[in-house]
Amino acid sequence: MSKNLVIVESPAKARTIERFLGSDFKVTSCYGHIVDLPSKELGVNIDKGFQPKYIVSSDKKKVVTNLKSLAKKAELVWLASDEDREGEAIAWHLSNALKLDEKKTKRIVFHEITKKAILDAIQNPRKINYDLVNAQQARRVLDRLVGYQLSPVLWKKIKGGLSAGRVQSVSVRLIVEREREINSFSKSDFYKTNAEFLTSDRRKFKAIFETEFKEFDEVEKFLQKNIKSEFSIISRTTKPAVKSPTAPFTTSTLQQEASRKLSFSVSKTMTLAQRLYESGLITYMRTDSVNLSNEAKSQAKAEIIERF
After folding, report:
1. Alpha-carbon distance 257 to 266, whole Å?
2. Helices (H), strands (E): how many in the chain?
């Protein structure tokens, strides 16, 4: 039996990581969250500081039983769920549900599934980040309070099957408010003019007259007046321009570009990104960071030197 048990979220990720760690490590998956609030009740004790009531999901009981058995046989358990609030909560739930000994449990995180990143994580374990755990708990409790309290009101007042939520309800309000602004906007017409010039060496360039005209008659008179006018350049300023490359994708920019260029839905984009991440081909896709690791930069540099 392996001395070390590493628990990750997905089986695809487990297979990739196990190749890097060798025979002393057994890598297995918890298949995401193993506990959640009960589906048939509020599951939040409002009178006791909004304390959540967690239960092992029915489809995860077999997984938990198997993980408990593996954990008992291992000398060390490594909790390697994702480094976000959901992943941190999963690590905490695993620690509690499996009744892990804190002295024999380590928390590790990584941003890409490469051999170097995994070995670095093993060399630099940390403790569970309870700020992230509490952030996830707050989100889950708010989801439950808003959804369970408001959705039945929608069913009674508007239509059955509708749902309210912590995010979607606010989003709908923002959309409605913006639509009302659009509908109440007072339109006013104005006219702008531009011209195309030909230089003495037959090069074309365009210029825009910054003054706006309120009436069509005014702009027509202006154009007629300038039909036979002669124009000259009285000054020219040359400035250096720097064009930076596009920043690496964040979650939202990845989704936007996939939609704009490939017509992918958000769910399809994230499913494909998850597969790429689990195969070790991209960094973690749920992020607002545009920073590249030193390893990624050195690999890009080596590739550029080799090709160009």
Report:
1. 10
2. 10, 10
Per-residue pLDDT band for 69 (boundaries 50, 70, 90) equals: very high
Q: Is the pTM of this model over 0.85?
A: no
Order of strands across the sheet that contains 4-8: 25-29, 4-8, 76-79, 105-107
pLDDT per position as a tens digit, 237-253:
999 999 998 999 999 99
CA 121 and chain centroid, separation: 22
Supply 222's token pair.
């202006």
pLDDT in tens, 150-163: 888 989 999 888 88
Do 80 and 7 contact (CB within 8 A), yes or no? yes
Give the tokens for residue 109.
């995180």
Q: Which of 31, 54, 191, 284 is catalytic?
A: 284
Residue with tokens 């000398």: 75
Strands 51-52 and 44-45: antiparallel
**Is 284 designated active site?**
yes
CA 164 to CA 143: how far, in whole Å? 9
- Quote the pLDDT of residue 1: 57
Structure tokens at 40: 């048939």
